[in-house]
Design a protein that fits this description.
signal; about 5% helix; single chain; disordered N terminus; FAM78; mainly beta; Protein FAM78A precursor; four-stranded antiparallel β-sheet; 3 helices; elongated
Length: about 270
């Protein structure tokens, strides 16, 4: 596992723990942030005669947080928010053309990033280990850890997706995606957003496929065998407004067929 160096962040004065309770905003402390991508390479599954599947290593992020006693009747949720800010996802079919999962607004430069929420708990990436809510007033320190993980596990058809033929023609897969991931505190009453830490990470892969070979022997991972480690930024990034609201990337993405000759075709329209 690639372990990015641990980052120790203390926000506010340590003595505040022993002083009278302060507001959440003035007293929250991020004690430690860890971020990594598993060291195992992307795995390939050719068990299906219809689709090729692959599973990328996991991106992981966690943070230890301390909130000294909070004086007021305020409620805050602390957790992870993620947005995709770049996506290339091409599946080539020899001389026929390629299919491509695309985020149209991101592709066309209309937005900087798009929410990667679970689609239910906006704007949070998830609502289990990913978040924690603190409600004041409190008399004691509150310590907790919030964590998240992410990876890709898609299916790609062996045959051209706009054809009725199941003849294998898939010849390569290329994927390059980048994300910004924020540790954030949000006030439940005012909606105020405090960005506590920013992490950037990227996932790349290139799979070569020989459709002439027997099932189980067609695909090989070309690169990379190991992903570059995430970056825990020294200066936080602001969160683009659209990264906090609907739609999320899964609902906004569209599958296109781009033939070598002819006009592009929408294979799967966006859900939202």
């Amino acid at each position: 596992m690639f372990l990015w160096p641990r980052v120790l962040l203390v926000m506010g004065c340590i003595q505040s723990i022993r002083c009278k309770p302060k507001s959440f905003r003035d007293s929250i402390m991020v004690l430690e942030v860890n971020s990594s991508i598993d060291s195992n390479p992307t795995s390939i599954d050719e068990s299906s005669s219809v689709v090729l599947r692959y599973r990328t290593p996991y991106f992981r992020a966690s943070a230890r947080v301390l909130v000294p006693p909070v004086a007021g009747k305020e409620s805050w949720t602390v957790g992870w928010i993620q947005a995709c800010n770049h996506m290339e996802f091409y599946n080539k079919y020899g001389s026929k053309g390629m299919s491509s999962w695309e985020l149209p607004d991101l592709r066309d430069g209309k937005i900087q990033a798009i929410s990667d929420s679970d689609g239910v708990n906006y704007p949070w990436y998830g609502n289990t280990t990913e978040t924690c809510t603190i409600t004041g007033p409190t008399k004691k320190d509150t310590r907790f850890t919030v964590s998240m993980n992410d990876n890709f596990y898609p299916s790609v058809t062996w045959g051209v997706p706009v054809s009725d033929s199941s003849v294998p023609q898939l010849s390569s897969i290329w994927r390059d995606q980048s994300f910004s991931t924020w540790l954030v505190a949000i006030s439940q009453s005012t909606g105020e957003v405090l960005v506590l830490q920013t992490v950037r990470w990227r996932m790349r892969l290139h799979i070569a496929v020989d459709p002439e070979k027997p099932l189980g022997q067609r695909a090989a991972l070309c690169e990379p065998t190991a992903q570059e480690p995430p970056q825990i930024l020294g200066k936080n990034e602001a969160i683009p407004a659209n990264a906090l609201v609907k739609p999320n990337a899964n609902d906004a993405q569209v599958l296109m067929w781009r033939p070598r000759v002819g006009e592009p075709v929408v294979v799967i329209p966006p859900k939202h």
